[in-house]
Every structure is written in structure tokens, then in C-alpha cells.
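Re: the 359-residue chain
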Amino acid sequence: MSQLPTFEQIRQAPKVLLHDHLDGGLRPETIIDLARETGYDRLPATETESLRAWFRESADSGSLERYLETFEHTVGVMQTREALVRVAAECAEDLAEDGVVYAEVRYAPEQHTSAGLSLEEVIEAVQEGFGAGSAGRGIRVGTLLTAMRHQARSMEIAELAVRYRDAGVVGFDIAGAEAGYPPTRHLDAFEYLQRENAHFTIHAGEAFGLPSIWQAIQWCGADRLGHGVRIIDDISVQSDGEPKLGRLAAYVRDKRIPLEMCPTSNLQTGAAASIAEHPIGLLRRLNFRVTVNTDNRLMSGTSVSEEFAKLSEAFGYGWDDMLWFTVNAMKSAFLPFDERLSLINGVIKPGFARLKWQA
């Protein structure tokens, strides 16, 4: 058996990230700086490592209230143009440092207007930050504009996603509590996006089960599923040990609908009991279009490289498996076909081949 890649080798690999929240990936020291500059006085700690530990412990607590409180603090310091530019720039820098060559980062513009910024000013500040942070670092960042599913601004945000799609916004998303807020509440926004030939993903099948996935695909026409981990509920293991796919699971696999899986985050939210028991193992074996993502790098104390290292340890994944996940992600990105192909053939495959040869 060949030796598994080390963490440092994985970090050097050209990776693709499709599911990462801007307000879930701030540097703790930046939160402290911005709180001081903006007068935000509610932080639970004002020393970098203590604050980092608080975010991780809160996310691991099993308390939904504590988990949601973490975002109150990150969003709380992201209310000025200067703060948004800095956070976006540092996001691009941190992802590039981790070996990410293409990332789609999402955020909800409506959550950053409490200090008087307009939605357009929020979007333009974030785009400025991504541009500054990615310059010369070998990374391209596309933006997903998110609407909150418990609010009623999805059409407005969808229209902005279309308006800014030639300025770095590559798609649309809805997020927030699934239970009680089905994606069909925002059907008008999804129908509008389809008429405009725009791309969108939907958070579905994380905290809520198969009905959420079914609605996201069959009613709303989602291009991808944010998480989608609960598709495992439609796969049963027979007495002979062979898995049998239900009709929805078979449809998702047959149509190659991408699943934006976030293993560590799924543990924190209770969608999986451990990395070794995460549905990603079976879904990879069954050749679903699975991708590996971070969700919230600060709260989960993770990176794309960390996620791959954990999966490698749990499932014995080597270079070929990691390349498979990465190509899946690049194929599923909201970029034009020729640009995806160029990154796959010109950057990703040669990068993995070089690392595999060196190993």
C-alpha cells in the first residue's frame, strides 16, 4: 500500500472550494481589530487565541444558540466598507496560502447594511477586497450572493446576482434554517434566475431531510446542493451488504448534481457522527458528484487541506481520490466551460501529477 499524502503535501495541491461563507472565515485578530475600530463591544474575548478557542468551542458545543451567536460577532464587525474590503482580501489570501486555485465564497449582502451601507455598496466592497487579496496569488475567487430563507428579499438579491455577474458574482444561494422555511418560498427568485440563464445553489439536506433536497431540485431547479448530506437517507444497505438507491438518490447521481459536502461542519451540526461515519465515504464509492468544502473555516477550525487530511486518514484516500474530488468541484463551478477546462487541464491535473511523482 502506497503511503498516504502528508498534510504539507496536501496543502501544496491545487484545490477547489465551492462552499465557504465569508462571515465564517475571519481571522480572530481581524475581528478584534475591527471591533476596536467600529466600536463593537460585545466580543466574548479580546485576545486572539482566546477568541479563536471561543469560536471553536461554541461551534462544537452542540447548542444551536451558541453556534448562531458566533455569526452575530463576525457579522457585527462587518458593517463598514473598510471592514468588508479587509475581510474579503484576507479571505482570498488565506485560501491562496492553503493552495486553493479557485474558490466560490458566499455571503448575504442584507446582513451588512445596519451601519447604512446599501446592498450595492456591500457587494462592491467585497468585490474590491477579493480583487486585492487574489492579485498575484494564483487564485481566482467567484462570489455567491446569498439570500436568507427566513427573510423576504430573495428576489432583490437574485436581481443583484444577475446585475453583478460580469463583475465577479458567479451565482446565487439561499441559506438559513431549513425546517419551516422550504426553498419553494423563494420560487419566484429561482424562476427569475432560470429565465436569466443564471447559476444557483441551495442549502438543502443538511439539518432537514429528503423533502428539502427534493424541493431544491425538482421545484426550484438547483444546479448544486449545499451540503446535501441527507441524501444518504434514500440509500439503504441490503442484507448482502450492497447499497440500494431510492429514486431521489438515483436521480441525483444520474443527473450528476454536485453535493457541496463539508465534513467537519456536518459533525458540528449533527448531520454526521464522525468523519469515519460521514456519508461522503459511501457517496464517493457510489460515484456521486461529491465535492469537499470548509463551510465556516473559523468556527470549524479548518481549511480545505485539513478536510482532505481528515478524509485521507478516515478512508485511506490517496492522490487519485483527491484529484477526483477536485476535478468534481472544478466541473461543478459556476464558470464558463472553457475556463473550467483550462483550470482542470492546465493547473489541477499537472499539479497533482507533480506531487504524485514527487511522493
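The two ends are 13 Å apart (CA to CA).
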